[in-house]
Predict the structure.
Amino acid sequence: MATITLKKVKYNYLLHLPEDYGKDPNKKWPIIFYLHGRHASGKNLESLERYGLPYYLEKGKKIDFIVVSPQCPWNKNWASEDWFNPVYDEVAAKLQVDDSRVYLIGMSMGGFGTWALANRMPDRFAAISPMCGGADAKWADRLSKTPSWVFHGTADRSIPISRSEVMVKALQKLNAEVKFTRLVNQGHDISKQFNDDELYGWLLKHSISKMPFWQEPLPFMKMIAAKKILVNSPLRPILGFASISYDYQGE
C-alpha cells in the first residue's frame, strides 16, 4: 500500500502556561492540545476564546497543564494537513514538556479531529476526550490503544449521539479503556465540560510508558519486526490520517 505524506504546516495557536510554570526549572509539564469547532476557524485567534477551553482559561480557570489551542484555517479540517508535529516540535523546543503526558481534546469538528489524530498516531497521546464528534468504527483497533472519555448530548441535532455510540461500542468490544458520558437533554453546545476539573484529573491518571533508550530495539530489529507483522496480518486496508473523510464537520 502506498504511503501518502501530508504537507507539513505550522498553524497559529494560543498558548497557556500553568500558574506555577518556571518555579521549578527541572519540572516537566503535561500538555493538552485543544481542537476547536468549525466556527472558530480562520485567522483571528481571538475567536478561539469565545467558547471551550480557551474561553475558561481566559476567564481565569487554572489547570496544571500547558495548553496549546491551534487554529484551523477555513476550508480545512483537523485531518487536512500535518499540523500537529510542527506545532508540537516548536512548543517542546521552547518549554518543559512531559512527552509521556500529551493529551488531545476537542468538540464538534474538534471532536472529529480528536478521533482522527488518535487514529493517525495511536502511540502519541496518553489519553483523549472527543466531544460531540464521530469517526469510522473501522478505526477501533488503532484507537483501542488510547484511553478515551467521550461526551455527547442526547438532544444534539447537529451531530447525533449515535455517532459517538458507534465508536464507544466498537471500543468496548475490544475491551479498550473508554468512558462515555451521555449528557441528558443537552444539545450540541456542551463546551461547559471544559470547565469540569474531573476531566483534567482523569487525563492526569494516564501516561505513556517509554522505554529507556538502551532498551529500545535497534533500528534493523524494528524493521524485521514490522515486516513480520505485515506478513502475518490480515490483508485489509489500514485507514490512516491521509484517508480520513468527514461527512460532517461540526460547528
Residues 219-232 form the longest helix (14 residues). The radius of gyration is 18 Å.
